[in-house]
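Trying the structure run again after the queue cleared.
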Amino acid sequence: MLSVIKTGFTVIIVSLLAGCAGKDFVRPSSETFKLGQTSYTQVVQQMGEPRKIGDVLKNERNVKTATYVYAATGGEPLEEGVIPARALSYYFNNDLLVGQEFLSSFKSDNSNFDESKISAISKGKTTREEVIQLLGKPTATFVYPMIKQTSGEALGYTYNTTRGGAFSGFKFFTKALRIAFDEKGVVADIDYSSSGNK
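Done. Tokens:
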């Protein structure tokens, strides 16, 4: 999952260097597209053609990815020195939506989260509602095959920053949290990773 996110932000940087920062977009409401119901065509009809299309293998299933990216050197980032950017990825299996993920370093709609609160989440105890109360509204949702469980779902929180420039070099930082729930809405698995330098 993290490699897919990094790929999206690599596209942003290449776009910046080429003088084209992608087309700006507004993140749709989490209710706009339904997991297991919305088709690829329905997403494109509302969002337009994606900046990048790809394929990944998740739990032995082929998943199509559609990613929208935008960066603006003149925009207002959440953190000083960061190139403000946002990315929105949709994942499809058999043409149906199985995941959607948003991340932003713009101050206005940033996807930052407090990773120090992860320790308060317990497998087999913490509920979906308690996770949201603790960490806020998730920036990603997934179902099988984006997660191992064939029932239940996973919530995600992802934040990425890009600093530097073409001459000084770029520095990337990404942190991603995935929390899977069983069919009763109780935490079944917690996966956190971070990479790069702030």
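The radius of gyration is 16 Å. Worth checking whether this holds up in the mutant runs.
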